[in-house]
Amino acid sequence: MRRLLALDYVLDHPRLPWLPTEAEKVAAFEALGIERRVLPQRTYRGAAGNIRRHFHLGLPVALDAKRAVFVYADPGHETAKGLRAWGAAHRELWAMLRDLGRKIEIVAVGRGSKETTRADTVLGNWARGLRSSDYDAEIDREIEWIKDVLCSGDERLIREVCGDIRGGLVRLAELQNRALRESGRGLLHRVGTWRSERLRRKMF
């Protein structure tokens, strides 16, 4: 069902520059200087050895000079766990694309109102930005610590912790950017859902 939903969306949006295969997706992102380790992946273990697959769900991705479109298809799961896991697997890639000047668009596809309504909530949270508790708490603590040190005016403490005020400001900016990436804030230009008419739930 997931593949059918994904195909239905692609057929309904033929003008988008889709990357049909795993190899084409990997090659397109590598051409932008993005390493394979950043791409969503899964390792399959078998008697013949391990096989690593990128974009292993086979979901649609479109890419051009201005934007990247990522499509998630919900085959009818009872929770949003799959959508959240998919987002987490792509977040570092989205951050790198954002840094390269691409606008990131996310579409969640479903065949019933239950799936699309649930996805609307999740995507809305992603677009608005997550709470600081959704990224590494250690980053949050270090940000607050450096702020306190800089605001203290204690030159000895500032030298000990930051080297100087400029060093403290640089480190603070690095941490805030890292927190921004890990939480997903500022990554997404547009989010939305799309309900398949050809595969709508009452037909199955």
Which assembly state applies to the chains in this document? single chain
Alpha-carbon distance between the two ends: 11 Å
Please state the overall shape, judged from the principal axes of the Cα atoms.
elongated
**Mean pLDDT rating:** 87
Q: What string gives the helices and strands in order? A: HHEEEEHEHHHHE
Helix tally equals 7
Strand content: 15-25%
| Low-pLDDT windows of residues | none
Number of strands: 6
Radius of gyration, Cα only, in angstroms? 21 Å
Structural class: alpha/beta
What topology, given as strand order, has the largest sheet? 3-4-5-6
Q: Largest sheet, described in full? A: 4 strands, mixed
What portion of residues is helical?
Answer: 40-55%
Kindly give the count of domains.
2
